[in-house]
Amino acid sequence: MILENLNSIAVKNPINGEILYNIGEISEKEAENIFEIARQMEVKIKALSLKERIAEIDKINKYVIDHQDFILDCIIAETGKSRTDGFAAEVFEVCDVIDVYKKKAPKLLKDKNIEVPIFLMGKKCQQWMEPLGTILVITPWNFPFYQVIVPSILAFLAGNAVVVKPSEVTPLQPLWNHFFEHSGFMKNAVQIIIGGKETGAKLIEQKPNKIHFTGSVRTGKKLMEICGPKLIPIDLELGGKDPAIVFDDINFDRTVNGIMWGAFTNAGQNCTGIERLYLHENIYDKFIKELVDKTTKLVTSSTSRNTKDPEDCDVGSITSPFQVAIIEDHIQDAIAKGAKVICGGIQEKGSHHIKPTILVDCNHHMKIASEETFGPTLAIMKFKTEEEAIKLANDSPYGLSASVWSKDMARAERVARKIVCGNVCINNHMLNEANPYLPFGGTKDSGIGRFKGDDGILTFCNLKSVLYDKQSSMVDPHWYPYKKSKYILLSNLMDSYFGKSKKWIKFAINGLKIDNVGKKEQIR
Ligand code: NAD
Q1: Whose CA is nearest to atom 20 of ligand 1?
Q2: Percent of the chain with pLDDT over 70
Q3: Domain holding 316: CATH number?
Q4: From 56, 78, 237, 433, active-site residue
Q5: Is 271 a catalytic residue?
Q6: Are residues 381 and 310 in the same domain?
Q7: 363 lies in the same domain as 512
Q8: Parallel/antiparallel/unpaired status of strands 242-246 and 274-280
Q9: Ligand 1: which of 165, 203, 216 to mutate, most ligand atoms within 8 Å of CB?
Q10: Which residues share a beta bridge with 10?
Q11: Pairing of strands 124-131, 112-114
């Protein structure tokens, strides 16, 4: 279900500034109604077998395959990204996630037999993966299709009802209207509620059973403050300032191409884009020369043959005016503190087109090297030793992702292990994020919790711990009455099992005696 409301926020095409449509905030009453529907849906979704839920997810897969071009047109209209960026990171990846979790979900959601410790000998334990109830998903603007659909799919597969609040910058309202009309996906199982921050806040007031939040550190901290007193669990997928460390033993062409892509794909509007490049001093000049040569050949949104068709460009436009302002501010701050822009820069004042921008002579006092820029900028710094590179990479409040580039795999792995982050690539960048079998998430200010991998489903489950016992005539030895004789037997049992060497005979005798006590010494 899509709720359309007051007309107050303009959704614009970033390439030409055209107002596409207006959206607004929902009322408290509407938030209540949304959750009333969700609470009813919880029961219906929980009653579905996993096979039936997978059949619903298949409808999403079919919709994506049948409407790829329409989906991409909608995404491009609101984000200004290049068509290949949209295709690879949003459309293709959604199908990949569906394919992987159709295989994973039956294994992950199956009742799991769990071992028992010696204290519980003779009993049986299991873990049941049950739905939590209603999951509220709050998403940012940089991958507006993927970020809405993927957590929704995983939460639904786990048996939950889902309410999503997409970013007001890229709500994709026409796409979601079309999706619900044509996909045949279970009505109201996922409700996409278009609105701004107030809408998000009103939905939180309804006390969802869990929040899955992707967005900025600033909002993440605010939501934690709100969720704390209400004890609403929240996963936080926040920002990053990814470092790439390049040693001097590399395949030059491949590494230059990889760094260029890692920095400028999606016009740098990636939480895991390369924003800091640490180059070994032996290759510093040569690497920069080749990087600049290649980067200046990239076709950007406004220099492409047809500026209205982002399919024609490598680097799309920046999506929102506030992001353009941040990027400009970081470049100006760096220049004022001694950095040099050696290619790129702001294309035209007031436009959303920023050329891929490379800066040298940077240091960590500059915003461009310390705060999340979220644009097509690359701050380059030099290092001499492995230790120095690790120290520089870790000198950041963020810890989302990183990469290490070298032919010496032992060294690359050693360095990768020392970088404090949630995700790391060797001789590539951010591609681990494209593997749904791997968990994804941050350390430090980059977030709390893991998404995808096994956690992708389990994070939306109540992991219920179960113990089965027999209806026998015995009571457990540690039940009432508490008696010194029982206490001594239990203590002997512990010594014989956990003591320096296992004393099996003593253990067996004590076990039998305890069984006897269990039979005889009951409160009758
Ligand atoms: P944002 O924090 O401004 O907004 C994210 C969402 O939160 C939006 O839907 C917004 O409406 C909502 N929101 C804001 N204030 C709210 C409130 N008080 N109550 C409820 N909802 C509220 O982030 P953004 O600018 O949209 O996205 C960019 C950020 O997202 C970057 O920092 C980027 O690194 C991060 N990001 C992280 C990941 C990841 O997986 N770690 C992925 C993509 C983007």
Answers
A1: 200
A2: 97
A3: 3.40.309.10
A4: 237
A5: yes
A6: yes
A7: no
A8: parallel
A9: 216
A10: 22
A11: antiparallel
